[in-house]
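Researcher: Please generate the 3D structure of the following complex. Treat every line as part of one assembly.
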Amino acid sequence: MSKHALVIVENGGSNINSVRFALARLGVEATLSDDPDTIARAGRVILPGVGAAGPGMATLREKELVACIRELTQPVLGVCLGMQLLYEHSQEGDTPCLGLLPGEVRHFPEQPGLSVPHMGWNPIRVRDPDNPLLAGLDGRHFYFVHSYAAPVNDACAATSEYGQPFCASARKGNFFATQFHPEKSAAAGARLLENFIRL
Amino acid sequence: MLARRIIPCLDVAEGKVVKGVRFRDHQVMGDIVELARRYAEEGADELVFYDITASPQGRSVDVGWVERVAREIDIPFCVAGGIRDVESARRVLFSGADKVSINTPALDNPTLITELAEAFGTQCVVVGVDSIRTEQGYQVKQYTGDPEKSRFAHKETLAWIEEAQQRGAGEIVLNCMDTDGVKQGYHIEHLQQARAICRVPLIASGGAGAPEHFRDVFEQAQVDGALAASVFHSASIRIPELKAWLAETGLPIRREAAA
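Model: Done. Output below.
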């Protein structure tokens, strides 16, 4: 891959280095950038993120990246909060998001015996067998850490269960997303990142 | 279904994994990255690194080894010890740790829990609680790493767990000092009490000596994870066999060690 083949959007998330290290283990030196031109020219883009939706969107606006991300046509992977920001709206802080995936991200409903955040390893059920990002990964465990979750709708490519089914991975066109952290999901996560690199 | 987590805990001093009496006579067991990789490959779901020298020496965690671990290890890990403010937590998290665990600093300054949760999200903030039975019920102890400084924090354990959650803790590790080191099983009764009031993930610590102890604490106290150190370090329990056996008992367990 060429120098800026893969750009990680520098959006202040504390998992940026973890994503970078996971790609390095696969032999890919990713570029960190918050420059719209660099991001627009990248072969692939990863939108990471840990934290809350409101500050996450505020960071993208401050860095003038909202239009840039919306117009990307290359493969894009949103991870965790980076996935949630791709939806129309998040209940967290009543935050309008990027609108690239349909629906609203909502808090897990309070249920007896259900700890929130949903933290730990949970298997995924792939709904779309032709989704290249998830090839070979049906039934595998991935590492999740989140309190808000996306809906199971047409854009949902894989589900997982926590009190109820929720969207573990989504896709619409060139926009891919995972609620889990592939960078921390052992061999299954490495396979997913390899799938992304090969898209 | 969410898998129950098996979590080895490694004590770290001067960038090495050590065992022995804390603060004295450290016996070096090996390189952090090598041991961490071994546990990850065997199927550990998460690792906890406890920097046993940072806190008593009043210094922050050396993030050099944190980054070395993050570069090599592809499972989540938590760093405990030596985190007493937002800045030291930030360095650890941006070096690649997934969570920080605070214990004595949270008791000395409970607002630290909220500051960390606001800066990084509650999911990054683990509060470790050392609890011991007394005539006045279960009480929290602090400075437990150092026998000469160890003392009661004058907080009732369950009240402190409740307060820690309200202040923004995203996970509680309850270390039961009555069972710690005895290898006769986790403190089921105390963990059940904690489970009843804990709305965030709860991790059991202290007492693991046999595979049955893991099954019992998962089935009877419904904890999210079980932490152990010596049984894993001594290889008296091996993680692949433990997880295979737990899965046979019907518990949800992640069973895929790295290829």
